[in-house]
Amino acid sequence: MAHHELHDGELNALTHVCNTGMQHAAVALSQLMGKGVSIQVPRLQVLEGSGVTHLLGAQEVTALQLQILGNVRGSILILLIRENAQRILELLLGQGPKEGEPLSEMERATLMEVGNILASACLNALGNSLKMTLLPSVPALSTGLGSDVLTRALERSDGDETVVMIDAMFSVSDSLCGGSIFLIPAPASLGALLGALEQ
C-alpha cells in the first residue's frame, strides 16, 4: 500500500487513542515499579516505511518487537536508547546492567515486561476505539544500532508501508526515560483502522 497521508481528523483520532493508551501504560508501570510514572506523547508522526530507518542512525538501542494479533494485523516496535533502557533497569531492579556485558536473563525479562505493558496499553486503547480485540504477541528483544534494528523490523514489508511513530517521554520518579513506539499496521489493515477511528 502506498504511503497514506493522514488528514487532520485521522491524525487527531489516532493521537487521542495513543494518549489514552499511554495513560493506561503509566498506571500499569506505576504498579510494576512501585513509583510514580507519567508518560507524555509529545509528538506523533506518520512516516513512509522506507524513510524511517535513518531516524536513529548510529545510536545504540534496545528494541522490543511484538506482532499484533486480532482483527488488525501488523507489528509494534518499541525502541529505547541504551542509556534510557539502563535507567529503566536501574529503577526497576536497583542496579543497571554491567558495562560491556550482555543483558542478564532477569534484565531481559524486565525489559520485555515493560514492552508488553506499553504494547498492551496501546492495543487496548486502539481495540476499545475500534470495538475489536487486539492482543500483542510475546515480545522479541534485540539490541544494536537504531538504523539496523528498524531495517530488520521493516524488511518483511515492501518498504512502502505507513509507519506511525509515537515519541513517548516517560518520567519515573522525576527521572526521564524517553523512547519511541512504532506502530506498523499491515497495509490491508490501515484504511479500515483509520476509518473506524473516525466514526
Keywords:
199 residues; 5 helices; 31% strand
Please explain how this structure is put together.
- With 199 residues, this protein is α+β, with helices and mostly antiparallel strands.
- It has a single domain, classed as 3-Layer(aba) Sandwich (Chemotaxis protein chec).
- It is 43% helix and 31% strand.
- It is built from 5 helices and 7 strands, in the order H-E-E-E-H-H-E-E-H-E-E-H.
- Strands 1, 2, 3, 4, 5, 6 and 7 form a 7-stranded antiparallel β-sheet that branches.
- Strand 6 and strand 7 form a beta hairpin.
- Helix 1 crosses helix 3 and helix 1 crosses helix 5.
- The longest helix is centred in the N-terminal third of the chain and has 26 residues.
- It is globular.
- The model has no long low-confidence stretch (mean pLDDT 80).
- DSSP strand content: 25-35%
Derived structural class: alpha+beta
Q: Could you say which overall geometry the principal axes of the C-alpha atoms support? A: globular
Give the topology string: H per helix, E per strand.
HEEEHHEEHEEH
Number of strands: 7
What profile does the largest beta sheet have? 7 strands, antiparallel
CATH architecture term: 3-Layer(aba) Sandwich
Our count of domains comes out at 1
- Main CATH class: Alpha Beta
Distance between the termini: 23 Å
Show unreliable segments.
none
Helix fraction by DSSP (H/I, runs of at least 4): 40-55%
